[in-house]
C-alpha cells in the first residue's frame, strides 16, 4: 500500500511539472515573432471600452464598430479585410468591391448605405457640392443611394481598389474615361428597373420632407447587384495581387502611434463657400463622426450617425473646365496630405503613377503608411484649401 501512495505522489509531481512546462511554452517568447495568420496572438492592448462578456466575440460584417473595442487582450487569427484591417468573413475577403457614386446634394439627404462603406471618397463636383464614392466589400447593403452620375476622376477611386463601378449616368468626360479604361461598370441609365430602382420618399425623421426630386431618387442594393453579376461575365473576385488594392494596417504587432503632430478632436474641411464636412472625435468609441449642413450625417438604413476610424486628406490641384462648372482633378501624380486618427493628425504623402495603378500613401520619410484598423474617409481636397484642426 505504501508503494501505491508513493507512485501516486511522484506521478502527481511529474504531471504538474509537465503542465507548467506546457503553459510556459504557450506564454513565453517574442510576440512579434508569432505569425498572426495561423493562430491567435495574445497581447496586452488597452481598450477604451470593457470587453463584452460573451461566449464568442462577435464582429459585425458592416465593420462600423470601433476596432479597439475588440482588441483588449487578443488579436483574432483572421482573416482581415485589406480595406479596413477589421475581421471579415473568409468568403468575402477576396470579393471584388463595388464603388458607388452617391448623391450628396441637400435634397438627396439622408443617404442609404453610406455608413456601411469600408472606404468613402469625398470630392467636389460642379455646383460647389461634393459627391461621395463608397467602396463596399465587407458588407453590401440592401439599399445604396441615391445614386448619381460619374465624373472622370471618380473612376480613379474605383481603380484604386479594383472595384466594379456603379453610377447613374456620367459626364461626357466620365463616359470617355469608362470606355478608354474599360472598367467594369453598371449604369443606371441602361439598367433602371433591373439593377436600379426609384424611391421618392424620405424617412419620417429626415430634415427633408415631401417627395424626393426625381434626380435624387435612384437606388441600388445587394440583391439586385449580385443577381445581375451572376448573369454577366464580370469578374467578381480579386486577383492574387490584391494586397495592392488596400492599405497597410497595424494588426497588433507594434504599439499604435498616438503622438501625431497636433490635436485633431474636431476636423473642419471647407470644400467650398457653400459646403463643408466636419468630423468630431469620440474618445469612447475611437471614431470620428461625420457632420454636414443638416447636422449629424445620418444613414437612412440604420438611423445612425456615420463614423470612421481614420480620415485621410489628399491635397491635389483642381480646375473648373467648362461653363457648367465641371472640374479637372489631378488624381495622377503625387502630393501632400494628412492622416487623422485617435484625436491627432500628422502629415503624409500620396502617389499614383497611372489611372490603373492604386494610390499609395507614405509617411514623410518615405516609409509606407500604416493605419490602425477601421473604416477610412478620404477627402480629396483642393491644394490651396485650408483644413482646420481643433
Name its key features.
390 residues, alpha+beta, YerB-like fold, eleven-stranded mixed sheet, six-stranded antiparallel sheet, disordered N terminus
Protein model, in words:
The chain has 390 residues and is an alpha+beta fold. The chain has a single domain (98-389), classed as YerB-like (YerB-like fold). The protein is 15% helix and 27% strand. It has 5 helices and 27 strands. It has helices spanning 2-27, 152-159, 172-181, 188-191, 222-230, and strands spanning 41-42, 74-75, 98-102, 119-124, 130-136, 164-167, 185-187, 197-198, 218-219, 248-249, 262-263, 266-269, 277-282, 287-292, 295-296, 298-299, 304-305, 307-308, 310-316, 318-320, 327-329, 333-341, 344-352, 360-362, 370-371, 376-382, 388-389. The strands form 7 sheets. Strands 3, 4, 5, 6, 7, 11, 19, 22, 23, 24 and 26 form an 11-stranded mixed sheet that branches. Helix 2 (152-159) runs parallel beside helix 3 (172-181). The N and C termini lie far apart (80 Å). 39% of the residues are buried.
Amino acid at each position: 500500500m505504501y508503494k501505491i501512495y508513493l507512485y501516486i505522489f511522484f506521478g502527481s509531481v511529474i504531471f504538474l511539472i509537465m503542465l507548467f512546462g506546457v503553459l510556459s511554452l504557450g506564454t513565453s517568447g517574442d510576440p512579434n515573432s508569432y505569425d498572426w495568420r495561423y493562430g491567435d496572438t495574445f497581447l496586452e492592448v488597452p481598450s477604451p471600452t470593457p470587453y463584452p462578456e460573451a461566449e464568442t466575440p462577435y464582429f459585425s460584417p458592416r465593420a462600423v464598430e470601433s476596432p479597439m473595442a475588440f482588441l483588449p487582450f487578443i488579436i483574432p487569427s483572421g482573416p482581415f479585410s485589406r480595406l479596413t484591417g477589421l475581421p471579415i468573413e473568409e468568403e468575402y475577403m477576396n470579393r471584388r468591391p463595388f464603388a458607388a457614386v452617391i448623391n450628396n446634394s441637400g435634397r438627396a439627404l439622408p443617404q442609404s448605405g453610406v455608413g456601411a462603406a469600408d472606404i468613402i471618397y469625398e470630392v467636389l463636383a460642379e455646383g460647389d457640392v461634393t459627391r461621395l464614392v463608397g467602396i463596399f466589400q465587407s458588407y453590401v447593403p440592401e439599399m445604396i443611394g441615391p445614386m448619381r452620375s460619374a465624373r472622370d476622376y471618380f473612376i480613379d477611386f474605383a481603380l484604386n481598389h479594383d472595384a466594379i463601378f456603379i453610377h447613374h449616368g456620367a459626364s461626357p468626360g466620365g463616359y470617355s474615361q469608362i470606355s478608354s479604361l474599360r472598367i467594369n461598370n453598371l449604369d443606371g441609365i441602361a439598367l433602371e428597373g433591373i439593377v436600379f430602382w426609384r424611391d421618392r420618399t424620405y424617412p419620417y425623421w429626415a430634415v427633408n420632407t415631401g417627395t424626393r426630386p426625381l434626380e435624387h431618387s435612384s437606388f441600388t442594393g445587394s440583391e439586385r447587384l449580385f443577381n445581375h453579376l451572376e448573369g454577366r461575365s464580370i469578374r467578381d473576385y480579386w486577383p492574387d495581387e490584391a494586397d495592392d488594392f488596400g492599405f497597410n494596417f497595424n494588426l497588433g504587432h507594434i504599439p499604435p502611434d498616438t503622438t501625431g503632430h497636433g490635436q485633431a478632436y474636431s476636423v473642419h474641411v471647407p470644400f467650398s463657400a457653400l459646403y463643408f464636412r466636419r468630423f468630431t472625435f469620440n474618445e469612447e468609441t475611437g471614431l470620428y463622426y461625420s457632420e454636414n449642413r443638416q447636422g449629424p450625417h445620418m444613414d437612412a438604413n440604420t438611423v445612425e450617425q456615420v463614423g470612421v476610424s481614420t480620415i485621410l486628406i489628399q491635397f491635389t490641384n483642381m480646375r473648373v473646365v467648362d461653363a457648367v462648372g465641371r472640374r479637372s482633378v489631378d488624381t495622377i501624380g503625387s502630393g501632400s496630405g494628412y492622416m487623422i486618427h485617435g484625436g491627432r493628425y500628422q502629415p503624409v504623402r500620396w502617389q499614383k503613377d497611372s489611372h490603373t495603378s492604386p494610390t499609395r500613401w507614405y509617411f514623410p520619410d518615405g516609409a509606407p503608411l500604416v493605419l490602425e484598423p477601421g473604416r477610412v474617409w478620404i477627402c480629396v481636397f483642393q491644394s490651396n484649401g485650408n483644413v482646420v484642426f481643433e
